[in-house]
Amino acid sequence: MTVQYLIEDRDTSATQHDGTESLAVNDRFIYRFLSLLALKTTKRFYGSHGACAVISNHLVVKRGPFVHLTEAATLKFLAENTSIPVPRLHCAFVHNNRAFIVMERLQGVTLAAAWRSLSDAQRAAIFAQLRSIFEELRSLPPPPGVGIESCVGGSLRDCRILRSSPRFGPFKTIHEFHLWLREELRPEDHPNRKDDQDWKEIKQMVAKQDGPWPPPVFTHGDLHPSNIMVRGDRVVGVIDWEFSGWYPHYWEYTSAWYGHITRHGWEDEILKFLDPYVEELEMEKTRQRWWGDF
Q1: CDD domains from the entry (predicted)?
Q2: Is 286 helix (H, G, I), strand (E, B) or coil?
Q3: Total domains, the chain
Q4: Are residues 265 and 158 located together in one domain of the fold?
Q5: CB count in 10 Å sphere of residue 186
């Protein structure tokens, strides 16, 4: 059996992996071959969970049309610079224009799956650990001149921003990022626009977006109960870092808050481990109303 028959046909239309060769990890033929072979053989005994396929008791492979080696670089970055529990990276490579990330299978269950069985004391212990984790994440010193970008200074992903198609950025400044989010809208370019309540809210949003802002902080970007792994009252891992990067300081809170649209009650729970940003949330509500994808 040869490697080219181990996965789907080549996707010749995607370009998101161009220039990412330096982000590969342990990109050796034997690792590639064994990983692809496992996806065709042992995976059937363990099953898949979205983009992640379990290939053994200890390994998972993340693959799919939107998986990118930047996520592997992020896992490596976090392992080298923090004590945050993340899956250990084994190898990462691109094959037939698809990225594959082979990583540790964490021994635990998602907070979403465990929630109903947890006592109040266990939940409190978990939230205390999450607060410590995200305080450490937010305390990472940003590189000089960092903008809105990945941990390696490259593009970002967020499926909630459909126009990213499938990635966006990087941006040199927070202002450039905000301007892109509102599709370059500048109220001064529309002097004849009726100054109704909608327009007043948009102008308030623009005034807030235009700053000034403190430096970006490193952000998970998709913080919800299915991306937090626990065992009993212990957090054993935070997973799914594909949306992560250097973002405005409010982005962790507002992106997690918007998870309540499909996860009712989560907006109250996040206050137990993330600081709220009330004005920024109102700014984001206006943006989501006119430029969002919810």
Answers
A1: APH_ChoK_like
A2: helix
A3: 2
A4: yes
A5: 10
